[in-house]
Structures are given as C-alpha cells and as structure tokens.
Amino acid sequence: MGKFYLGHVSYNGEAYYGWQKQKDVPTIQETIFDCLRRIYPLGRIDVKATSRTDRGVHAFAQVVKFLAPRRENPLDVLEKLQEELPADIQFTQMERINKSFKVTYLAQFKEYVYFFSPNRDVLPYDFVGHYQGKADLDLDLMKQAAKSFEGLHDFTHFQHRSDARSDFKRLIMNADVVAANSLFPNMGFPPDTYCFYVRGGGFLKQMVRLMVGGLFLVGSGQITLLELEKALTGAELDPDKRVSFIAPPNGLFLYHIEFPEVMVSDIMRKVIDNRNFYNLFPNFDIWQSKDPHSFPVEVRDL
Fold first, then answer.
1. Considering the domain boundaries, does residue 300 fall inside one?
2. How is residue 231 annotated by DSSP?
3. I need a surface site. Which of 55, 119, 182, 199 has the fewest CB within 10 A?
4. What pairing do the DSSP bridges indicate for beta strands 58-68 and 3-11?
C-alpha cells in the first residue's frame, strides 16, 4: 500500500511552464513526478500542490502532497528526491501525512510577494521586475493603491482567462508595498528594492501580476486611485482606458501558505513549518537566471 507525504518545495520557475503538467513542455509537477518514478519504478505515484503557479513564477514555499508506493522515513525520501531533482527545485521539509489531508482545499490563506524597483542599475538579483517608465513611481500613492485591494472585491478586471466562470469576487486580507529589506532583513537588498505583499483566501489566474500592473499605472500617474477603485467594483470600464497590465512573471513568488492544525497520529498540530524556507537563503542562487539574455525584465508603462 502506498504512503502519502507532505513537503515544502522551493523553486525557480524560469525554466518551467508553471506548476501543472502540460503536454510537451517542462513543468514543476511533471519534474517531481518523473523524479519519483525513477526512485520508485513500480507502483502508483500521484503529485498534487496547493497552488498552481504560472509559467516563470517562483515559489519560496509551495506545499506538495504526493503518494509513493511504499512507507519510508520522510527524511530518507527527501534525500532521495534531492539527489534526483534539478538544482532549481528544492524540497525543504517532508513528513508523512494522512490520506484525508486535502492539500488543495485546506489552506486558510496564501501569500505572494512581487519584487520590483524603479532603479535597475543597482540590483544584483535577476528576479526583480525593473520599472523603466517615463514617469517616476510615486511609492506613497502605490501604498494607498495597495490598500484599496483589501477587503472583498470583484476582480473581473484583474484576472486573465480565469477558471472561474462567473464569480470573480475574492477576499484580500492584507496588501501593501514594503521595502524588500523589511521582509528579508538578512538579504542585503539595495534601499530602492520593494515588494508588493498580498495575502488572500484565493487568487484568480494571473491576478497578482495584474494587481501589480495596476499599481504601476497608479504610481506612474497613468490612472488615478479612483479609477483603480472603480475597477474593483467590477463595473464596466472605458474600453480605451487600461487599468492594469500583466506584470512579468520573474518578480512573483508564492511566499507562504497557511494551514490549520489537523489531527496527525492522534495529536492536533500544524503540519507545515510556517517559515522553513528561510533556511534556503544561504543557497539563494537557485533563483538566479541561467539565461544571460532573459533579465533584467523591464516593466514599462503601457
């Protein structure tokens, strides 16, 4: 009988067409599945995750549940996986979990961060989206705009070909524009490196990147704060007035997924270490680009 395992996985999404398996292109899910199949040539294998990241999007802490054909020490499974996985995918935590644990439904909230800067010249990191518009960014105005996202809103104008057919309302618990050093104090980011941080119960397809696009348009003076707030009502908009655009994927990270306490071996406890991915910071180069021509990605005003 197969056994179920739960783990945190961190990855650089640059070389992958997102999380979900697709035909004839590399994905994170398929790469993990193939590695497990090499470890376990026989028996059923299944791999699921809490969030489906898009092409080129990264994760500090994706949560993955998989079925393996036999019961083993979770640390042994983690070690075997790390030997098989490419360097841009790393598991940071592993434990056995009950079959009933619904990794795709139990999350209480998800957090994303999008790195950006108005100054590309001082940035050593490939995953920072660089704004190179004609106007300077008003960061105070962007902070106000980020707060406009908080609460229950209609994100019809901030999703792209979403799986949702009619209900585009989503609850955003917290949204802010903060200095990158305030979230990552040990990384030594230059002072003008920022993060758009957002926490919500769920997100539509490319929703966070469209939220970032809206912030850039407000910050550069191309739309007003009132126009952004009107877009969040789902009201019909002037077709000639763009309120957002899809920001490049390289700046976006799945930051954290919060789960409730669950019963494990007759004990109610958390099964996921809230911030275990911080242990990866000494190996931060897994988020560095392998293609010298792919970065920096410029976020231009459109």
1. no
2. H
3. 182
4. antiparallel
